[in-house]
Every structure is written in structure tokens, then in C-alpha cells.
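Notebook, p. 212. Picked up where the previous page left off. The plan for this session was modest: take the two constructs that came back from the sequencing core last week, fold each one, and keep the raw output in the notebook itself so nobody has to go hunting through shared drives later. Recording the first one now, exactly as returned: residue sequence, then the C-alpha cell string.
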Amino acid sequence: MIGFGCWTIGGQWWGTVRDEESVAAVREAVTRGVNWFDTAPLYGNGHADEVLVRALGSKLADVTIATKVGVRIDGEHAESDLTPAHVIADTEASLTRLGVERIDLLQVHWPCDRGTPLEDTLGALVQLQEAGKIKHFGLCNYAPEALRRARELSPMVSLQTPYSLLRREFEQGLRQVVGGEPPLGVLAYEPLCRGLLTGKFKAPPSFPETDLRARDERFQGARFRHARALVDDLERVAAKVGVTPAALAIGWVASRPGVTAAIAGARSPEQVRQNVRAAALMGRPQIWRVVSGVAAIHGGS
């Protein structure tokens, strides 16, 4: 399954992002069968939610919305505040922005920076669930031990975690934890490594300071060369299959054991069309064996 990640359409830290193009991308995703969207208050300080609601219109009731909770923003600095009071207030703000009475999936954005006990945070999420404000809840960016403990303490249903051909931490402990009984849903984000695996960048790119990739070491020096060598091989496989490298990279993640869905961002309808082609490849395991072989040659990071 492929979902639409909304970080880019929030507009902040992604260079020039035009709302009209973002709206068109969301609508193209719905047209192409994408039925769930992953957003967060952090994405443009709520702007991604506003764009999403505008784009979906009456179709908002027909799709699944996953959002996040816990980030407190002070100027340009963001930290995780998972005190029960903030979790509840942050959730109420999301309900208002999204214009819904209940959030389908509420996820803790990342572990608390203020030392709030996990039990207190999970208790607040259960309280919201019992009040009918959220249907399900899960965690994002948690390590295996904390995730294991959270499973023991609460009825959480999912983990959101980075996973790509270049980033493989999920395979080093998390997969075992999510595979317990009952298994957790796994939503894998950054399957394209912020665009690095699309094939768009033939040489180390220069981004404006308003783009967070200007400070991402994966787009520089030896790490970029390593990624580019992998993409070169990925492009050869993609040409034989008749898709883009982006579709292969996303599809590989979505096909991996333990993964429920891959979250792929897009800022234009054309990027959406490239991304969703991954879904058509899911029933062809031989492709993923080839892609895994390519990844094995180059390793991860």
C-alpha cells in the first residue's frame, strides 16, 4: 500500500512549494487510488493540514487521515512535549484544523524531550481514544526497547519509522518487536530518501537555505556518490521494467517483510503518478529480488 506524505506540502523547509501545485498533487493522488494521507502539526505549523483539507473537500470523509501529536514549536525550534495536557491540547487543535470529529490514526511524532514518563503519554492517548477523539494511536521514531514497553502498556496499533534502500535500521531490531502478537502496522517513511533515490540528481545538488536538504549529508560528498552508484543500477532495472527509479524504491520498501505501507511525499501531480506506479508492481516478487540484489551490492547507511 502507498500513502501520501504531507510534509512537503506544508511548505516549510522544502524550498519553494506552491499551494496550487500541492492541491493538484493531493487531488491526483485521490484520482490514482490513494486513500490515506499522513500529516502532522509540525508540517508548516499546520499549513499541510489546511492544504489537505482544501484539496480533499468533500472527499475528506472518504479517506483515512493519519496525523501526529506532541511537537511544541518555539520559533524555529521544535521539541517533543508529551505531557498529557499538551497531548490533549495538540490533538484538539488538529481536530479543529482538519474539521473532523475523530482522527483515524494519531501518532506520537517522536519520543519526549522533556522526560515525561511513557505511561503518562500513553494514558492520555487512551483517554482520547475512550472519548471518541481518536480511533487508533501509534508511535513514530521509537527504538526497539521503548516500543516493546509501549506495546505492553497500551493498545497501540502502529509504528512509523524510516526505511529505504539506503536506510535499513528497521531490520535491526524493530522488525522483531512489531512482529509480536498482535503484529503492529508499520508505516515506512522516506522510502525515497528525500528525493535522493528518484534519479533526479546526477551530481551533488545545491539547495537554498530554505530547503532542509541543504544540510543533509546524504546529498554531499562520499555519501552522495554512494547513493548515486546505487541509483545508477536502480535506473537500469527500472528501464527494463518500464517504471521510474522512484516507483522501484517505493515498491521495494512496501514489499518488505513486516511493512504495511510506504509513505511517499509529492509536490506535483507528476511526482504522484511516478510514485503510485509502485502499487502495480507489488505482485511481481522477482522484481524485488533483483532490487534486493542491487541493494546488497551497495549496502545501506
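Okay, moving on. Second construct, recorded in the same format:
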Amino acid sequence: MERPSLLMLDEPTNALDEDGVDLVRQIIREENARGATVIIASHNKEDLTTLCGRFYKMNDGTLKEEVLQA
């Protein structure tokens, strides 16, 4: 991948140690800052609240925008 405009990540920090989590989060922020759209599927609320600007929840096949509280 060379500077993709869209990244889709499924549980990107799952099973990583603290340094790995920090590195992945840094990369995600850098990619977003350069203009890439980053879509993250995760159950990790900290990842979602620190990395995402919009939140959606899938329920019974329906996607609904949500407001997450940190």
C-alpha cells in the first residue's frame, strides 16, 4: 500500500502490547492528518473515542450514528 486514500481496520489494536497500541494509534492519526479516510471496526471504546470523529453502531443490519461518551 502506498498512501491509500481509504484504510479499513478491524480491531487494529487487538492483542498488542502498550507500545504496539501507541504505534498503531500514531499511524492512524498520521494517515488521517494527511487526508486519508480511516474506518475502524472495534469494540475498544478507548480506540474509538481517541481516534474517531464519527461513530456508528450496527444493530440488526442497520447502521445508526451514535454519540459516544469518553
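Notes on construct two before I forget. The beta strands are 6-10, 37-41, 55-59, 62-66.
Flagging for discussion at group meeting.
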